[in-house]
Batch of 4 targets.
Target 1
Amino acid sequence: MKHWHVRKVPFKFQLSDWTLLTIPLRLKCRSIGLLEPRPLEADLHDPVAELRDGLQGFMVRALPVENELAVISHVGGYLRYVPLQYRHCFIDLNQTFEDYQKKFSSKTRSTLNRKLKKYAEFCGGNIRWKTYKERPEIRDFFCLASAVSKLTYQEKLLDAGIPGSEEFIRQAENLAQDNKARAYVLFHEDRPVAYLFCPVEDGVLVYAYLGYDPEYTKWSVGTVLQWLALEQLFLEGIFKAFDFTEGQADHKRLFATHQKDCANVYFIKPSPINRLIVHGHHSMDNFSGWLGTKTQQWGIKSAVKRLLRTGSTGKKADAEAG
């Protein structure tokens, strides 16, 4: 069971990919492990009176749920806020790669094989890629991955590329020393074009960072690297699962063998300012979702996404996995 830890959780008031305002709340936090039994409701938080040192409540990520929860409700003296409910996708690695491939339709298998063949031909016949899992290799991985990350829209607009701080790299090196990290880079000749970094928690690989060079979108380099990495992981046979974490991207559903309903749940002290933060955050989310729906109806959503991802409306944007 994972332990509680205290941190400042940012409540971001966003409009599409732009953050308009961030308000941090100091909370006790924990995540429910992919293979961890669902905790009882009473185990998720303590009485309000026991919160001290400026703590405003509790936050639980990846909580398995049986039914859809109300977005805002009152539970045990708290304002319970559920901003995200999603299908948690993951891959069961306790099988062979051959058995795993049977989950795909013949059409999908043909599409994946065609993407690999297409990229191999583009590279002159062979795909060059590398796995980084030993401590001395990790710094080289981050050097290559950072070069790709700087080109992605996640880093340009959202400041959400792969971390490059010395502290983060040392943490990754420590994980690798304990065989708790896998990192991958896909190349075109000597140029890195895609990366994937997965720390390991309780025998489960966590899909933490994937990025690809937007100039190589048409070659589906993110998908190519994901497939090659999965094939190797099945051959290694030492991990229990591959966890795609929260979010509902198409490529996660494509590669997953299992899905379960999960939610991110906040238990917040019901003070006037906290009520304002929670209700304001929910209202902004609703407005942002409404705006996204309208731009799709108006036929401009794809153009806006291309502009955000590539900086121009002339490039075709691919799925998250490339």
Note: The longest strand covers residues 78-92.
Target 2
Amino acid sequence: MSAVEETVWGEVQGQTITFPMVVPEINAATLMFTVPSEAAAALLPGGAFEVAETAPGEAQLVIALCDYVQNPWGDYDEINLGFLARPVGASDDEVGSFMYRMPVDQEFTCVAGNEVMGLPKTVQQIEFRYADETVQVDLEFDGQPALRITFPRAPAEGEAGVVASESYAYLHGVPYATTLEMEMGTGLIDPADVLIELGEGPVADELRRLGLPTPPDIATWGEGLRGVFLLPRPVAPPS
């Protein structure tokens, strides 16, 4: 991972925020789905970013289920719902991700994510249930059971590789990007073994409009992963 000079961003609730932010331990599942690009675009706010089509009329939904076992912002759980996207006017190879929802289960990471990165975090009830051979993740959103995902606890198939990517957001209305250098899990999950159950409320309704529940195209799992978040920066306008 990159060696970058430390920068003090400021303070949130009396805690000093510095970058790069090193995350020592994450358990994470990443699920990728092909969805209609029109339905995906309807969930992308503002006008600075656009859905990156993977084929005409098709976009890629990303669901990341993250159990931050150790993190400077807390030992919290998080569910990322978003799409592959790029800044409007950017070249085709400038693809990152835009998360349109990011529920977490602790207050500090919610406030810090909102104020520092512009991430759409809200405090909700999330529970990871580990068994010897499976993991179950439950999301209760605004008091309603919204989403349950159950999948095999796939063992690692080799060392985790580091993937650098851009995460896009709006910070106080300004388009921003945060570079992430994250290890990706090498536990390969058979998509047919991923069980997705939708409940009630806005999250479930949005996923239904995207065509879920359906098996993902790709699903991976990893435990004890590491990551680095670099200093967020404004997105330069297209030249």
Note: The mean pLDDT is 96.
Target 3
Amino acid sequence: MMWLLPIIVIGGLFFPALGYLVVGFAALFLPLSFFKGRYWCSHLCPRGAFLDIVMSRASIGKPFPKQFTKMWFRWLIFIILMGFLVYRVSKTGGNVVKLGTVFVSMCLLTTIISIIIAIITKHRGWCLICPMGMLQEKISKIKNKK
């Protein structure tokens, strides 16, 4: 699945409609997490595959700072990114091309962040704070509470 990441973050710069793939994956895999937990993360995530295959070679392998794995920090990252997303979506005026561009740019932004984290910590450091992964984790716990 690693090939999807450059298609979205590079191809999406020229064809903004590719940003809708991001929405499609979230719409498909968030409900699936009720049954399969973080299945997306460990089996299908294009960014995770990129981090495993490419960034594992560039990573210095330092542990991810423990304070950043705390739930309050993960929620803070989630709120900041979702707030930024909502703000950007509100500025599109309903233009479908601009909306696609928002999703492409969010994917590009989080990919750049994941690369920086991969270089200065372990290659999958981003996965510890990934909003999609956190949501999958929370949704899977709903099932376990029943």
Note: Residues 4-145 form one domain.
Target 4
Amino acid sequence: MSDWDLLFWIHIIADNNVGKKTFLEKFRTSNSFVNETIKTIGVGFSIKDSEIDGQIIRFNVWTMASMEFWNERARNLSLIESHLRNSHGIIIMYDITNAKSLTRLYEWIPLIKHSIPILLVGNKLDLEENREVTSEQVEKFKRDNKIASSMEISLKTGKNVEEMFLKISSMAINISLKELKEEPNQRNRQKLRKIHETFTRDIDRIIWIHNKNLKSKRNLKKLKRLWRKTPFSKTSFFEEYVANQKKLILRLTGCKNKIINAKDIAEVMKVWEKVKVINEELNFLLNYNK
């Protein structure tokens, strides 16, 4: 049984020196290979748990390297888009003492699907006396990019950080699912059956793709080369990683059966969030070097 009740997949986008390093240090995890590799592969990972009304909400937070990082390495921006695609919510963060850190966020907006909630966050509220970003600039950025919500925080002191997670989680809740629960039972059952069919088909496709990738010697060679660039360069660790990916595929099969047997929308969606987590774990390294 999981040690959380709800799971949200959140991405943080920011320029250099805005606060990503501070964030990763505050919410460090010991079980993720990407904690120390934001400068190597462009992504950092951390976990934040919050308790709301007796429920534990887990935030899997992916922290993206700056656009400068991706441009310098001539990375295909479709890689960023694929990483952001399954996000429940995206926090785009600027430094209130550096006006350029806000304007540089314009580069990221075209890479974000319009259906994903975006929260604009100003960090370093503890340095209010050095403020460069005005409320007028913030409002213009929100108007230009059709962003509804914004707030300011201090990662250093912790001010408003918990509130930031509460806000992005409330934005991430799918309103259509709420409406779906309120519909007549017959229509609800029909939509539930359609969701079953769609998700189980998607899971079958995920399993097929990753089984194929794991059996491909060419893909494994690419993965091994990438692995050597990370702090975890030992071959034995690499082989253990591949074995773990095969276990994840078996877990996907179990999730598929749970989805088929689920009797309400909330139950299906809870399992589907686990599927997306497993798929992201499988997908990121296998596709990174293509």
Note: The longest strand covers residues 43-52.
